[in-house]
Specification:
Mean pLDDT: 78
Radius of gyration: 19 Å
Distance between the termini: 36 Å
Largest sheet: 4 strands, parallel
Order of helices and strands: HEHHEHEHHHEHHHHHEEH
Low-confidence stretches: 1-7, 248-252
Strand content: 5-15%
Helix content: 40-55%
Number of strands: 6
Strand order of the largest sheet: 2-1-3-4
Number of helices: 13
Shape: globular
Structural class: alpha/beta
Length: 291
């Protein structure tokens, strides 16, 4: 029996993740120079998309007249998704093709590995990610369950069935891939992106094959990209403040501003009891044991 008490957003995400995982290997054609951003929901996907796009395309656009000033990060770095039209235009994207996914590595075409596609995987403290997801659900559904009830009953952690699969399986798969392909798979911590932004941008640029020149360093290009892709800038751009964003193939339309929330590291302590935090830590410890 379908649990009708679950938020509509969660039900749609799970249905679409199943559809995606079944059809994707037959629909997506990986490119050898492709760059894929692999994240879990509410783990900095929006800002990392912006950074990736700005770094790779900085020779094509002025930072004062930039696509990110008028377009959403999700438009310039599209999701790997299979709702109607979801992959339309993927083959026409310029090289290197920039994509993003919430899917586990095992659900992507095998050629992603064999062709040497570069992958950037971003991980985040699951407690903070859970709180961010809860805030998102509240804004979208206007009446989501309390945080206590969410942790107790939500499949997001308890049963390991959040949208697009359990977070621990995703992290472990990409981690093992990074050990096998050290030069082609990069792990980033969400917490480092916020606390050491400039060095993360430099490392990301080098990994993607677009290192900064000394002239760019002297000219403050790294700082300019950090400002362009920062929370304050992105959240105040008109395209990210107004309008409508179709989610799950148009089955749900959301306010784009709901995609922006300044997720502070350790903010979970302001929303969760120590008991709840300990429970989630134990889940993580159990799932990552031996890794």
């Amino acid at each position: 029996m379908v649990d009708t008490t679950r938020p509509l957003q969660q039900m749609l995400d799970q249905a679409n993740s199943l559809r995606d995982s079944i059809a994707l290997p037959h629909k997506l054609k990986p490119h050898s120079d492709g760059i894929i951003l692999a994240t879990h929901t509410k783990c900095g996907n929006t800002s990392l998309k912006a950074l990736k796009f700005a770094i790779v395309n900085r020779s094509h656009y002025s930072l004062t007249d930039h696509p990110l000033l008028v377009r959403r990060p999700h438009e310039v770095v599209p999701f790997v998704q299979l709702w109607p039209g979801g992959l339309d235009g993927a083959e026409e994207l310029p090289s290197p093709r920039l994509l993003s996914t919430y899917l586990q590595l095992s659900l992507l075409p095998q050629a992603v590995s064999t062709l040497g596609c570069r992958i950037v995987c971003v991980c985040r403290d699951p407690k903070d990610a859970f709180v961010s997801r809860w805030h998102f659900e509240k804004r979208v559904n206007q009446g989501a369950m309390s945080l206590d009830m969410a942790l107790k009953h939500s499949p997001y952690f308890v049963r390991g069935a959040p949208p697009y699969g359990p977070f621990w399986e995703r992290y472990l798969e990409y981690w093992k891939e990074s050990l096998a392909r050290l030069q082609e798979v990069m792990f980033l911590r969400y917490e480092d992106v916020g606390s050491d932004t400039l060095n993360v941008i430099r490392k990301l640029a080098s990994f993607l094959g677009f290192p900064f020149t000394q002239e760019e360093e002297n000219g403050g290009v790294v700082e300019q990209i950090a400002d362009l892709c920062g929370f304050t800038s992105l959240s105040n751009i008109d395209a990210n403040r107004a309008g409508r964003v179709e989610h799950s193939g148009g089955e749900l339309v959301i306010d784009p501003s709901s995609l922006f929330r300044k997720g502070k590291v350790g903010d979970w302590v302001n929303h969760m009891s120590k008991e709840m935090g300990d429970k989630m830590d134990q889940i993580v410890s159990d799932k990552f044991q031996g890794s």
